[in-house]
């Protein structure tokens, strides 16, 4: 069995991560190649993992003819029995070439825009798509209602992301946390990630037994802007910003008593919360995207993206046994969202239809 997984995202998004893990899952039973844009994150990751690569042109750059032809050449070279795509451009190309090459076509839906309800999209899914993986049940609409489907909110490598006592001690010492509780947030500095909302929520906490550590690289929000906001809110003495990439992020996650995911949009593929959970950390999140389908009591809670409600949820969790909740979070991550638990499900869903 030969499987071609097309990862044509330009960045290391949660959708790219999900697609890559589907490729890794299929590689347990199939000969897998990844088609990607040269030198972009998916390309570099596949090269690092030793997965065979096929180069495709960026379908969002210039005319569609070159991307179509590079996709066609990938099919001619690899001759797959099945093709998995994560975006609409390559799904369209896959539909146009499906009869000529005789493969099964699958689509992973994990884009913040959801499943577009257009005439073309309905036609492609009805006539050419053999199955879809959706990252949230919110995506299920009339376009894919009759298509075989599997819901995968996200997949976490629970071997890579696991609790480290030594990592916890080292990071807490580095951040000079002492006996205070450490609240952690990990995500690029982008308005959609809700850092301003979180800082305003933190400013409403009438206690000083915690430290907030914000880990993330600048995207569409400058670090200096968040530092300035923390000063205006008089919480700069309780907030630590880490703008550079942390090599062993699992050590930081292990050090945190509580994780917060304050996003105001997107989060249709769950990644950072599952990584925190795998490191035995309870989670407070907003209820956007797929988050409320994953973050549930007792190990977590998802609330509306409102500063008062977020502050209240954080305050409640700071007063409970977070170590016990962290243990529960780890159990859920392993049983429901780990690569080892989901790989057989993914392979059965796809390969049984080939």
From TrEMBL:
Iron-sulfur recorded as keyword: no
Keywords in alphabetical order: Transferase
The keyword Transferase belongs to this UniProt entry's keyword annotation: yes
MF-aspect GO terms: glycosyltransferase activity
Start and end residues of each Glycosyl transferase family domain: 171-321
Family annotation (Pfam families): Glycos_transf_1 (PF00534)
Lineage: superkingdom: Bacteria
Protein name: Glycosyltransferase involved in cell wall bisynthesis
Source organism of the structure: Balnearium lithotrophicum
